[in-house]
Amino acid sequence: MADEDVAPHALGSPAGETHTFPAAAAAIAPTPAHPAAAVIAGPRAGGEQEARLVWTGSYAKGKREIVKLVQRSRRHLREDLVPPTEAELDARRNRVRAYLWHLEFATEATPRLKKDPNNVDRALALLFKDEQSLGFVPDDIATQAAAISAKFQQANWGANAPPRPPSTLPPLPPLTNSTGNVRLPPANHPIWGRAGIMHGLMLVHGPTRAIYQFDPRYLAQKRDAKVFGHNGLTPGDWWPLQHVALYHGAHGHSMRGICGSPARGTYSVVVSGRGAHGYGGLDQDGGDAVSYSADSSFLNRCATAIPHVSDDTRSLQRSLATGRPVRVLRSAGSNRPHGPSVGIRYDGLYRVVAEVQARNALGGLYYKFDLVRAPAPLNPRPLADICARVPTAAQRNDESLFRQGY
Length: 406
Description:
- By secondary structure, the chain is of the alpha+beta class.
- The chain has helices at 23-26, 59-74, 86-105, 120-128, 131-134, 139-154, 242-247, 311-322, 383-389, 393-399; strands at residues 37-43, 49-55, 182-183, 201-205, 210-214, 238-239, 258-261, 265-271, 284-285, 289-293, 326-331, 344-359, 365-373.
C-alpha cells in the first residue's frame, strides 16, 4: 500500500464487539483540517453541533502519528529542548485515538498491516509495551492499543484469510468539501436516517474520495454476525450494500464471501451475482440447492493438489461435519436468476451436505460445497416468494438514491 493511499475502509469490525465512540474523541471541537483526520459534525439537541474525529489517512500515516506522539511527549525529559504545549499533545492524542478507533472498528486483519510502511504491530507496541513511553501515553490509549493488538494476534494477522477480491462497489460522489467537515446523517433522513436503508453507516470525505464508515452514534446497535441461525433476521431481509448487511449481523465481512471459524463452522456465505469471471463461473445456484466454491477456487493452476486451504474453507468443512445451518445471502448480478435485482438479500438457512473436488478453467483443483435450503419451520417463507417480492419497488427506488448522500 502506498504511503499516501487512503487506508481501505473494510468495515470488517470483529463481530461480537459493540462499543460506543470514545468519549475523548467525541468531545473534540472542530479544528483546522488534518490530512489524515476529518471532523464529523452532527446535530445535537438544541441545534448545537457535535464534532467527532474520524481517521481518513493511511496506515503508514497512523504509524507516524503514534511515533510523533511518543517523540513529542518525551521532550519533557530533555532540558535542552522546548517541550510541546498541552494543546499540541491533546491534538496528537486525539488523532491517535481516531486512528485506533479505525483499527478496532473498520479494519480487518491482513498480513500487510505488519509490513512496511504500515508496521501496525510495532506502532501499537509503542503505546502499551515500550516502558519509556508508558509514562506519557494516556491509560485509555494504552488499553485500546493492547486490545487491538491482541485481536489481530488472535486472527494471526489474517495469515490464513483468503485474498480480498477487487471491489465491485459503484463509485461514490467525489470529494467536494476541502476542509474535511461533513455532517452525520440526519436522524430523520428517509434513506440515511434511523428508519432508512443506510442506517448505521455514514459518508466520510477523505483526502481524495468519499468512503463508507460505521456511524459512531449507533455502534452499540451493531449486531454480532458470528452467531449461528437467523440471528434475529428474517428470510427476505434486504440491504443496499454488504457493508449494511455487516452492520445488521447478516454477514461478518464487508467484501469476503465466507464468514466462519475453522473450529465452529460457517456462520454465513454470500452467493455472488457477478458474471462468468471469478467465483461467478464456478458457483451453481439452483435456488433451494447451491453449489458453492471455496475461496480462491478460480486461481489454482495445480491439477494434482489444492496448495492452500484457508480458514474460511475449513469452516465450511466443519459445518459439513456438525450439520449446523448456514445463513445464505445473495448479491445482485446478471448471472444469478435467484439473486436480487439490486443490493444484497438474506434468503434463509442452508445446510452443508457434501464436499467434492472439481476443476476450474485453468485445470486446477478446488473444493466445492453443496448447500441445501432447510424446510419449514426453519425457513418459514418459501424462496420463490422471496425472489418474487424482494427487493420491493420502494427498496429499489431508495437503492437508486443512496449514493447521493445526505
